[in-house]
Design goal:
The protein is an alpha+beta fold. The protein has ten helices and four strands. The structure holds S-(P-nitrobenzyl)glutathione.
């Protein structure tokens, strides 16, 4: 059955792979599923046709036959449960990998998004210089904790899983801030994710849309 996802017709990041279609593309590449992409503008995402797929008028969406999904966590979990490659066979290890997906989305991503908002949209506010260090502290606390847990391991819990895919995707959002530099174990963890052939294919595919000159 054909899989179709949506992505920005032009991502605001100009092809850095930070928009959320990249994590879905990465999951599809990891499990070896071909897919097609329907590109959407910001305006089109607010139209009824797209809102029927995504109640919040966002991307990515996922369609496969009769199934329409939104939320990258749900999409990646759907792929991981139906195909080999992103979740371990052992039931407990599987549950733990899913816990890491939730941790990435619920515990680590929120302060990182707050930081991105502060850096991008709040610079001209009179309270910005006071607030920024507080937001950075909340990110740093999560990075310290995550780094302690990862230790010298390659991945969070045994073999690479959907939990790592989601965690690396979330941490990548920190690259522009330089905050990963203070956490060499996490920087190496992210680099391991980026070095995976499936990630490279996903990154190249979004770059071809957003910055065709660089993609070549
Ligand atoms: N929780 C949802 C999920 O995981 O699927 C969040 C989806 C979401 O935020 N989608 C964003 C969107 O559609 C795109 S990824 N925004 C349009 C809107 O809300 O109108 C967010 C994003 C955008 C741009 C960059 N960037 O340029 O670096 C990074 C991330």
């Amino acid at each position: 059955m054909t899989i179709t996802i949506t992505a920005f017709e032009r991502s605001p990041d100009g092809g850095k792979g930070l928009a959320r279609d990249t994590r879905v593309r990465w999951a599809l590449e990891e499990v070896g599923q071909p897919y097609t992409v329907r590109l959407v503008s910001f305006a089109a995402m607010k139209e009824p046709a797209h809102l029927a797929l995504h109640p919040f008028g966002q991307m990515p969406t996922y369609q496969e036959g009769d199934l329409a999904l939104f939320e990258t966590g749900a999409i990646v979990l759907h792929l991981a449960e139906r195909h080999v490659g992103l979740l371990p066979d052992d039931a407990n290890a599987r549950a733990r990998a899913i816990a890491w997906m939730f941790a990435a989305l619920n515990t680590v991503e929120p302060p990182i998004l707050e930081l991105a908002t502060a850096r991008l949209f709040e610079r001209d506010r009179p309270w910005h210089t006071e607030r920024l260090p507080l937001v950075e502290d909340r990110v740093r606390q999560r990075l310290d904790q995550l780094s302690d847990r990862l230790g010298d391991a390659d991945w969070l819990d045994g073999a690479f899983s959907a939990g790592d895919l989601m965690m690396v995707s979330v941490l990548l959002r920190l690259k522009p801030s330089g905050m990963l530099d203070g956490h060499p174990k996490l920087a190496a963890y992210v680099a391991r994710g980026e070095a995976r052939p499936a990630y490279k294919r996903a990154f190249a595919a979004q770059l071809a849309v957003n910055n065709p000159q660089v993609a070549g």
